[in-house]
Amino acid sequence: MEDMSDVTSAVEAADLGSNPIVSKLDSLSIPHTTYAHTLCMTADELVANVPLAGDNEGHTKNLFLRDKKHGLFLVTAATDAAVNTKELGKMLGLQGKTNLRMADEAILLEKLGCRKGCVGPLSMANNAEKDVTLVVDESLLKLSRVHSHPLRNDASTSMAPADLMKFLKEIGVEPTLLEFGKKGDEPPAPAKGDKDKPKIPPKPAGAKKSVNKDKKTTKKGETQLALKWKKSENFAMW
């Protein structure tokens, strides 16, 4: 990884040195590098505007979700992860009906002390009530460095995955680890209206409709068998 000492000094001079996350990491003697970059509101903007030096490093994308029954969840995943909120409840083993949706920014500010676009796993340090469940993409733990925001989206903090996990343990957070697929790997969604449509197996080639010859109808309400009986009956009467 390239030497970031100069940009780190610039960041500190720009008031990141007093950032509560940076201060917390320093107080716990957890190795990290915090650097300034272009303000980015989304993970896609980070990937496009903040290239990383190492081949095995990655930014994160973060979803702050709310379910009326099951509470609040912060999902931290790789930028190319396919996170399906409709399937997430099943992956987490949540019981009953789930409806995970993006939480309002006001709740984000109240619970994690940051605004939209600035959230990340480090913001869990602000969750004093411990009422937010952190969900971490397992693929992030295979990287050499994980980059995430220290409560602001014009800077990122780079850490080894083991140091990130150590930080979470020190602040009393035990994340739930899930394995997400990659974008493009998920199966195509069924066409609208086909979901509950019964599957009818095709008929074998050359198959013909079976006909019961004894019950073949020749007249309304009559069969050949019935007609034979009537003929015999009429012959006896004559």
TrEMBL record:
<dbReference type="InterPro" id="IPR007214">
    <property type="entry name" value="YbaK/aa-tRNA-synth-assoc-dom"/>
</dbReference>
<dbReference type="Pfam" id="PF04073">
    <property type="entry name" value="tRNA_edit"/>
</dbReference>
<feature type="region of interest" description="Disordered">
    <location>
        <begin position="178"/>
        <end position="225"/>
    </location>
</feature>
<feature type="compositionally biased region" description="Basic and acidic residues">
    <location>
        <begin position="211"/>
        <end position="222"/>
    </location>
</feature>
<comment type="similarity">
    <text>Belongs to the PRORSD1 family.</text>
</comment>
<dbReference type="GO" id="GO:0002161">
    <property type="term" value="F:aminoacyl-tRNA deacylase activity"/>
</dbReference>
<feature type="compositionally biased region" description="Basic and acidic residues">
    <location>
        <begin position="180"/>
        <end position="199"/>
    </location>
</feature>
<dbReference type="InterPro" id="IPR040285">
    <property type="entry name" value="ProX/PRXD1"/>
</dbReference>
<protein>
    <recommendedName>
        <fullName>YbaK/aminoacyl-tRNA synthetase-associated domain-containing protein</fullName>
    </recommendedName>
</protein>
<dbReference type="InterPro" id="IPR036754">
    <property type="entry name" value="YbaK/aa-tRNA-synt-asso_dom_sf"/>
</dbReference>
<feature type="domain" description="YbaK/aminoacyl-tRNA synthetase-associated">
    <location>
        <begin position="40"/>
        <end position="167"/>
    </location>
</feature>
